[in-house]
Task: structure prediction
Amino acid sequence: MSKRSTTKCGAGKIVGLLALAALYLVKPAQAIESVIQRLSNPEMHCGYQPTLDLFNGVVNALSESQSTAAALTLRREDRRLELLIHFKPGQTEIPPNCLPKLEALNNATKAGRSGPILIRSSTQTGGSAELDLAVASQRLDAVQHYFRDNRLARKALVLELHPDTSSPLFGDAVRLPNMVEIYSSPAN
Result:
């Protein structure tokens, strides 16, 4: 093989690799757009004014060394993010505008259109770790009691109390200090 054909072959491989890399970059861009679009939907949120900067949160998540855009699916294993309840700092009562959304999740689960509901709570009060866990626990209890008071079976709830305010959706790139995340599971 001549030097010229070797150079053409090497250049062809490089062009091919660049085209493949560009193809892989399109999918993460679509994933980012999908995540930002879904998180921007007001139906995803209730409570008080969210403090989450969606664009910077997603970009920061992608800049984490262990993060990939493919992970930004708003899912935890087979569970899908349904609702983000935003609390005022220090508040533990469910904001009134969240009740219709919780009722819809409750009805879907009782009707068999959804499997167990995962409720994840964490907080950051600026005080001690014990205070953070106490407030997060009270918020988790409030949501759990809502579902129990509305006759949702205990086995239909999975509860997670976390001392860390980072979200499994974004890793350590985004802190969610006053929020409870609610995920639905596929119907059994």
